[in-house]
Amino acid sequence: MERIVIKGGSKLSGTVKISSAKNSVLPVIVASVLSCGRCEIDSSAMLEDVHVISEVLRSIGADICINKEKIIIDSSHIRNGEPTGELVRKMRASFLIMGPMLSRFGRFKISLPGGCNIGTRPIDLHLKGMIALGADIILGHGYVEAKASRLIGSKIYLDFPSVGATENLMMAAVMAEGETIIENAAEEPEIEDLATFLNSMGSQVVGAGTGTIKILGVNNLKEANHTPIFDRIEAGTFMMAAGITKSKIKIEGVNEEHLKPIIAKLTEMGISMEIGNNNIIVDGTNELRPVDIKTMPYPGFPTDMQAQMMSLLCTVKGTSVITETIFENRFMHATELNRMGANIKLDGRSAVIEGVKKLSGCEVKATDLRGGAAMILSGLAAEGKTEISDIYHIDRGYVNIEEKFKKLGADIDRYDI
Ligand code: UD1
Asked: Is the pTM of this model over 0.90?
């Protein structure tokens, strides 16, 4: 079983390069199914989740070649089969293939996505949207089957701006008959990136990245290439690493616009930043102040940064409060942080954090992807040795994370223990 072992206390310095966004790469890979041909994704982050989604598509006949950072997807031989249930249940994003497959074949059956430890994560909004587009939905025996000889454009109002539902419905609607309007759509930058790819395939999507997306259906889509946007969550993780280790580092591969909610909170805490062209220098050497955080849909503070922020706040003198509004069970990392000497009290959807002078290294586990990143951050600042288990969670969303930190001067290694 692999573990990450960190000896805390090293200052970080130098430059780190950010990879492409997991949450862009996954839907873009899935969208390539709509082309009936060959699509190329360049500079892709080679994450565990990328391999899982590739296996899901291979299980229905896609030819996928992964070479260094390039992914070539040939979906001309895809059949309307059932993707391997075990793979679908491994990763919730697999459910995104419902929209494009239904659109391409008029019928599709897929296992319901697996339970996820950060919350119940239902798919009702995806299904309500598909029904609005004219699909018949049959649920049973752990599967969902959708049928529609041709989807018909419609007006869809999402009760909540779900990222996955917005993407799934966008991909379903690009080849529907007539116009679809998605209101209260998620506004995350990855949605705009998906629309850029869909439009380069010949779709007519306008407004992605805002709360109202208009899609005029077309009859077919062509092959296209795409380079996904940088990962704002990975960038934010390194920004917080500078804060927790009281270091100054340069982060290359950032879009300032996408990082606004993170920059705002870190600035409020006293972290200095110099924003350049595609890069940012983060100086965490100042005395930091506690802050209150509420996770919100974009452009609010991202839930995917909540755990890493909690690690940072554990080391900041004073009281901070984090309120998690997106997922109901996303505080599992708090228990692990308390094992390291943090002082966090949970009260429903809020966590009250009293900053402590020092965290102390011990054995902890990565409770989920971002919770795992939080353990790395606290390990970097802790006294002594931190040994993190269950690191497969971390590999789902971070490329060579220990190598990147090592290059910045951290004492961090991966062992098969
Ligand atoms: C995506 C991201 C994930 C991020 C999350 C929120 C990908 C691959 N993953 O996940 O990293 O943490 O957005 O920013 O892009 N909900 C419903 N019904 C639905 C769909 C969602 O109630 O049909 C609820 C969920 O339970 C959750 C909230 O809406 O409470 C947000 O979920 P959603 O935006 O859909 O997240 P994902 O797309 O799963």
From this structure: yes
